[in-house]
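Lecture notes, continued. The same structure-token format from the folding unit now serves as the input rather than the output. Read the line below as a description of shape only.
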């Protein structure tokens, strides 16, 4: 006697099990039909632990048919699943109907904390390393009420934890959609965990910076790509993206990290630019792009733009501009106000080819030149741009 059920008939999947009670070691042929037309065939030989627990043979009697495209309910309602042992007559496998109380009911769990914290006003400073992020961060720390550290490198953990939750629920997709599975994971939505992750960081930053004015400076693409998530957790957050022409950026990087190749430096610079381009549209009205040259040559202008973004009063803006003018953290050259000419760099033709291949797109986008003019032409958005 053939026993079995079709557990799932979904938009992109048919799944179930079938076995012959008189031949529990045999594996049945499965035919999938729609309106009498054979759509697929296979063998019910997949292992499922719940079948083994229920002593349905050795547990290796499940079948699974994914579809190349999603199907609507009308088509799915006309499917027929047949099972047969060798040349014996086929038997229709019926669809399983959940019994009262078998499947756990989803519950709305509440995170004991703040997944969204509208009180604080943090500022996040992004950009490629060697692009002036330290100058802006330390200027704010020395002349404004903002508190923080010279480097962040903690909040990227939010992304890692979010990805772990997402991957776990993806790995357990069968548990979530199988109506016969009575599992705890069905009772807890992934949002509970992502809210919990956010609440850990709102609690930590409130304890570290109870006044609510704090900054995080973490160069590179990882935290930059989290900007929309940061804006969700801290709705009053503001964002500053520091950019610097690739020639100066690479020259500074190679002075500080002489073992790094030019091609590697190009990739790091472009990765930071790419990350910012991805998140920039989501930050409209609360972000500022600022070129390092603006901070170096016109510190008062840079301070005024940052002050407008953060709502700083005139006296604080004046102090910030003065700090930009006198304090040069992480400086590796004699004059940050100077712009390089291509002839100043001892790059080989092959290195210039790599530079143009990798960095050329963003160089053009930001109107950067290859000479001491720094920009191809003077434009209002060259040195700063409000997002």
């Amino acid at each position: 006697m053939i026993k079995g059920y079709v557990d799932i008939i979904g938009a992109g999947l048919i799944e179930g099990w079938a076995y012959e009670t008189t031949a529990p070691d045999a594996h049945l042929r499965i035919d999938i039909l729609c309106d009498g037309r054979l759509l697929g065939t296979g063998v019910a030989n997949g292992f499922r632990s719940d079948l083994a627990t229920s002593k349905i043979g050795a547990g290796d009697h499940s079948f699974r048919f994914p579809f190349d495209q999603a199907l609507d309910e009308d088509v799915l309602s006309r499917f027929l699943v047949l099972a047969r042992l060798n040349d014996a007559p086929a038997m229709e496998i019926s669809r399983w109907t959940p019994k009262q109380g078998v499947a756990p009911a989803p519950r709305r769990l509440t995170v004991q904390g703040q997944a969204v914290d509208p009180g604080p006003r943090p500022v996040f400073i992004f950009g490629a390393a060697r692009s002036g992020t330290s100058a802006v961060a330390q200027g704010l720390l020395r002349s404004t009420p903002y508190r923080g550290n010279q480097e962040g490198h903690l909040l990227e953990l939010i992304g890692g934890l979010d990805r772990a939750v997402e991957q776990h629920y993806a790995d357990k997709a069968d548990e979530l959609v199988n109506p016969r599975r009575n599992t705890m994971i069905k009772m807890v939505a992934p949002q509970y965990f992502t809210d919990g992750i956010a609440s850990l960081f709102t609690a930590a930053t409130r304890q570290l910076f109870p006044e609510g004015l704090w900054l995080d400076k973490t160069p590179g693409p990882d935290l930059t790509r989290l900007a929309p998530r940061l804006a969700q957790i801290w709705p009053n957050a503001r964002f500053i993206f520091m950019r610097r022409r690739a020639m100066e950026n690479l020259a500074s990087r190679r002075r500080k990290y002489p073992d790094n190749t030019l091609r590697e430096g190009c990739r790091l610079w472009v990765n930071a630019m790419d990350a910012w381009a991805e998140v920039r549209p989501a930050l409209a009205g609360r972000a500022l792009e600022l070129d390092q040259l603006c901070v170096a040559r016109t510190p008062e202008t840079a301070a005024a733009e940052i002050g407008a973004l953060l709502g700083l009063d005139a006296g604080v803006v004046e102090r910030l501009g003065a700090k930009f003018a006198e304090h040069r953290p992480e400086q590796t050259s004699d004059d940050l106000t100077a712009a390089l000419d291509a002839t100043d760099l001892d790059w080989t033709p092959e290195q210039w080819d790599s530079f143009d291949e990798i960095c050329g797109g963003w160089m053009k986008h930001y109107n950067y030149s290859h000479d001491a003019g720094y920009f191809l032409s003077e434009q209002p958005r060259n040195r700063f741009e409000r997002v």
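Point for the exam: The longest helix spans residues 190-208.
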